[in-house]
Design a protein that fits this description.
By secondary structure, the chain is α+β, with helices and mostly antiparallel strands. It is 39% helix and 21% strand. The strands form five sheets. The protein has a seven-stranded mixed sheet, with no helix packed on it. The termini are far apart.
């Protein structure tokens, strides 16, 4: 077969110069020759082998040459076994796996394929690679029955963002490359399987379901996703549905009942939703993120299911990615803030439409507290607290924090403040239309915004002179503007926290119980930012006012609460920490708790819990937490040991 490129990409290449378009798409996290060849489409032919926890099959790449004499195709791979490579004429091609010194464990390896003959610029060719995955592949999380809600069948899902799709298939694993894809997947009965694509047809034989999928929208490789297990799908709204294990469906239906309303709210601010249906998968608790915006198959952590819908802003965030991140994508991981800063901005627009401006302002203040915490977790002036971190030789996961989310949100909000709400809404719509299906970096965005201001805004130079692009984009630490000020409800929570920090117990000590969930988060975050002023006795007083609420139900509240318990040695609460670390795998929650244990001189406890629970976590979370613990061991001093003994 031969895949034809869509007219849109051909037109763009012809108008801007085929090679020039891609020479600018530099990605230091990829070993692919991005400036020489581009993947227009790929087709997967897979069999899911639950017994041996692997995928067996092939990928066929429809390629276009961007150079006059293309002789080799270089792809990203990690933890794959390559069996055979051939082209569309069935000519077997030679290949080799190149291991880059000191980077194999960080970025994987390079699969270099030698073509049978050189391809000229614009020439299209197909390559098929037969391969299988291995347990060392970082994207896959194969779960045994006890790790699932139903406890009776195994389960598998992938997490490809940022650079882990190279362990799913040999690809140009870079957000600079956007492709359509199709797939044929065989899975053993009684399992069901979903991909981040539309189900086209389904058949079965005695032992297997065989499903065919297709995605006609161009996406970067990190949005490829698969989930398979004992799962079912239920419709929620006209375009929305939930996929999960049967046992989790009733709670998920209640929690995400407003999914269609969320979609409509974001459409009202932006443009019509372009992907057709919107499906979420509520995954097992090992999932390392709150959500993952795979098109047509958003992954959601059960950690956001609190029973009172207080954390469903995460779902609004993932829906917003349908425009910012999925349609308009960052070109490389140093520009990740373009995905997340804009999406947090849209998330809070959605929250304001659905729940009011005051709720959105509270969420923004919670975000600012989180940004402060993230920046303080790094060394002073760390490159990773810049909006455009330098990642050469580093795994982009190392830079994962709230910085691209919340510092990015502040930058976008600052730009909105300069030109006004109505103009900025118009700008956002133009931004999406102009970069539809494209990958961009910070320089592309900067030029686009400047062009808009000069075209649409009165006194454009006055606006542009107010933007210190260099400071916003490249300087570490807090940005030069921190938002529109603190809301009255946030101030109320802060003032109440300060009464405990003054060393006294307020007479109305139970007042925090009546706060909204966002106010409660601000209250506990304020205490956490001043933890050195607190004692276990004070925390016990707070706990006694409402013991049930401080059990591990709402992770956004429980995480700062448990960090306070660790910091003050309020050890009576440690059994709840053990339960929490065993059940949840979202590293936004569990990683800070492990770090707090280390900081408090309880390295042995951190190691004990990690060794006991790491098989319940995704490989991405395991790698990051293990790095933290190993770093702490290497830096351990007698003073730290003395501190632990005193506690």
């Amino acid at each position: 077969f031969f895949f034809q490129a869509e007219d849109g990409i051909r037109d763009a290449q012809e108008s801007r110069g085929l090679g020039d378009v891609y020479k600018r798409q530099v990605d230091e996290s990829s070993f692919s020759n991005l400036d020489q060849v581009n993947t227009e489409h790929f087709r997967l032919d897979w069999t899911a082998d639950f017994t041996n926890q692997r995928i067996i099959g092939s990928v066929t790449l429809a390629l276009i040459s961007l150079t006059d004499a293309l002789t080799t195709v270089k792809l990203d791979v990690q933890g794959l076994v390559i069996h055979k490579v051939f082209d569309q004429t069935e000519t077997t091609l030679s290949y080799q796996i190149n291991k880059v010194e000191d980077l194999s464990d960080v970025l994987g390896d390079q699969l270099e394929i030698t073509l049978a003959s050189a391809l000229g610029v614009g020439q299209r060719w197909n390559i098929t690679i037969e391969y299988e995955t291995t347990p060392s592949g970082k994207a896959f999380n194969w779960l045994n029955p006890p790790q699932t809600a139903g406890k009776s069948h195994p389960y598998v899902y992938t997490q490809c963002e940022p650079i882990h799709c190279r362990s799913v298939a040999p690809l140009q694993d870079s957000p600079a490359v956007k492709s359509t894809y199709s797939a044929r997947v065989r899975v053993q009965k009684p399992f069901k399987v979903y991909l981040s694509a539309e189900l086209i047809s389904e058949e079965e034989d005695e032992d297997y379901h065989v499903l065919n999928f297709e995605l006609k929208h161009r996406i970067p490789s990190y949005l490829l996703a698969i989930v398979a297990g004992e799962i079912e799908e239920v419709q929620i709204g006209k375009r929305t549905s939930i996929i999960s294990e049967p046992k989790m469906i009733p709670a998920a239906k209640h929690e995400f009942e407003q999914m269609e309303d969320m979609l409509v709210a974001l459409e009202s601010y932006l443009l019509p939703y372009p992907w057709g249906s919107y499906k979420i998968v509520v995954l097992p608790p090992s999932f390392p993120y709150g959500g993952m915006e795979n098109p047509l198959l958003t992954f959601i952590s059960p950690a956001i299911m609190t029973g009172d819908r207080s954390l469903t802003n995460v779902l609004i965030h993932e829906i917003a990615h349908s425009w910012t991140g999925n349609l308009v994508s960052c070109k490389n991981w140093s520009s990740f803030w373009l995905n997340e800063g804009f999406t947090v901005f849209l998330e809070r627009k959605g929250v304001a439409i659905l729940s009011g401006e005051e709720t959105a302002k509270l969420a923004a203040y919670v975000g600012l507290q989180g940004l402060n915490d993230s920046i303080n977790s790094y060394e002073k002036d760390s490159n990773f607290t810049s909006l455009t971190p330098q990642l050469k030789g580093r795994n982009p996961d190392d830079a994962f924090s709230l910085v691209p989310y919340e510092k990015g949100f502040l930058f976008v909000t600052y730009l909105e403040s300069l030109i006004g709400d109505e103009y900025f809404q118009d700008y956002m719509r133009n931004f999406i239309k102009d970069f539809w299906y494209k990958s961009i970096d910070s320089a592309d965005f900067k030029q686009h915004f400047i062009n808009y201001v000069r075209t649409k805004i009165d006194s454009p130079e006055e606006v542009l002179e107010a933007i210190d692009w260099n400071t916003w984009l490249t300087k570490p630490g807090l940005p030069p503007w921190l938002g529109h000020g603190t809301s009255g409800l946030a101030k109320e929570a802060i003032r109440f926290a300060n009464q405990f920090l003054d060393g006294s117990i307020p007479p109305n000590k139970e007042r925090w119980v009546d706060f909204s969930v966002q106010q409660k988060i601000i209250f506990f975050n304020t205490l956490l930012q001043n933890k050195q002023k607190l004692t276990a006795k004070v925390l016990h007083v707070i706990f006694e006012t409402n013991p049930q609420f401080l059990l591990p139900r709402n992770a956004e509240i429980f995480t700062p609460w448990m960090r306070l318990c660790i910091a003050t040695n309020y050890s009576e609460r440690f059994p709840e920490m053990r339960t929490f670390l065993k059940y949840f795998g979202r590293f936004k929650y569990i990683r800070p708790i492990y770090k707090e244990l280390v900081e408090a001189g309880r390295l042995d406890m951190a190691k004990e819990f990690f060794e006991e629970f790491k098989d319940h976590y995704h490989k991405i979370a395991v790698e990051l937490i293990q790095h933290d613990i190993e770093k702490a061991i290497s830096l351990q001093t007698p003073k730290q040991e003395e501190k632990r003994e005193e506690l």
